[in-house]
Write a structure and sequence with these properties.
By secondary structure, the protein is an alpha/beta fold. The protein has helices at 2-5, 41-49, 101-113, 132-145, 157-166, 178-199, 207-222, 229-238, 273-277, 310-319, 337-347, 386-391, 417-430, and strands at 6-11, 14-19, 28-33, 54-57, 66-70, 73-77, 90-93, 98-99, 122-124, 128-129, 226-227, 243-246, 284-292, 294-297, 331-336, 351-355, 365-374, 377-379, 393-400, 434-438, 446-448. Strands 11-9-7-4-12-3-13-16-20-21 form a ten-stranded mixed beta sheet, sandwiched between helices. Strands 14, 15, 17, 18 and 19 form a five-stranded mixed beta sheet that branches. It has a two-stranded antiparallel ribbon with strand order 1-2.
Amino acid sequence: MLNELFHTVRFGSVGMFCQSARLNQVPASIIVGTQWGDEGKGRFADLLAKDMSMVVRYQGGHNAGHTLVVDGEKFALQLVPSGVLYDHITPVIGNGVVVDPFVLLAEMKTLTDRGVDCSRLKVSGNAHLIMPYHQQLDALQERHLGSAKLGTTKRGIGPAYADKALRVGIRVQDLLDESIFRKKIEAVLSHTNKILTKAFNRLPVDPDELADKVLEQCLEGLKPHIADTVDLVHNDLEAGKNILFEGAQATFLDIDHGTYPFVTSSNPTSGGACPGAGVGPKHIERVIGVAKAYVTRVGAGPFPTELFDEVGDHFVDVGHEYGTNTGRRRRTGWVDAVMLRHAVRLNGLTELAITKLDVLDMLDKVKICVAYDLDGEEVTKLPYHQSQVHKATPVYQEFSGWKTDLTSVKDPADLPAEAKTFLDALEEQVGVPIRYVSIGPSRKQYVDFGAV
């Protein structure tokens, strides 16, 4: 598919990829994080949305945070898809998402108060609800793990997905039938209350009080937005319109392919878009992977290139590496091509978008991890056994820094030679063309290597 989208024109030492087909002829695209999240997916989803009819969030919950900067205004989104800032977009929360109704309504109100129209937002009736007892369980279970804690956001995401798998979950559509909603709340609490009272010595949750609260505070606000989103998506696909599927978290937080158990509870990888939104893979033509020019991680888990020196502090301070929702300081390290190569495989990436290149502007040297040293053996593929990832020593390729402010660059030709060399080397390491490079937080601060 990639050959149909681009033909290669070399520019100095960096690949420029020019369009050989109009991108707005591609029916469906997926944008996915390739590291441990916080790569800047939201800003590129926002960028790509201008050519779409719909932006569909396909998994995760309000543990995700997408930050957009438009005309100097910052928007921090949790559940509402990035495309909401465009008047022509239908933002869709797909069936694969877990939805805290209180958080969603609060987010919609915040956006509305700032002049953003949320009336077009649609929420799948098959999406599962996060209830207050999910958040209570999340916090209690994390505390119970002690030093072995996972570093969850305590937003109830894992317990909600667990209930979904156990087939005792509450779905958005259940709100539309009070009798069914109350029966399902009573059924799940008959089990959950035993855990709360006997395992954690907490008071039981009253099912009637909870049902009253949710119905009274959430039903009226959500009812106009509840829809058969599978039908909506397919109607647009059949009409030849373009759709962007937006993942939350990232590849190495995927419950199957991430650094388990330090992962999320769903499939952020591109394949998750199919069950999470109700589409088949034949509709997907383009998969854009987003990666920082360095790497960050929140919470516990292996991190081969993690830095504990002044460069790591530089990434935190200059890159403002604190969680959008939690405010937690992120762990930082050099960009890891071993991880990226694996992300290319898992997601079927057609191209890359590199973010925060400008954070490296003032460094004397910049590095790419090109392999791992495992007990004296150099490996270029991500080890399948996590114990090896924990003890992997990064093997670096080092480059001269460009010591130039990139934030006003618009044309690839204006990038310093050292920055081109760095990008070219990263591109060669992962085997996928770099299409976009962001050099600042705002919507317009990026370089497009595919622009004609």
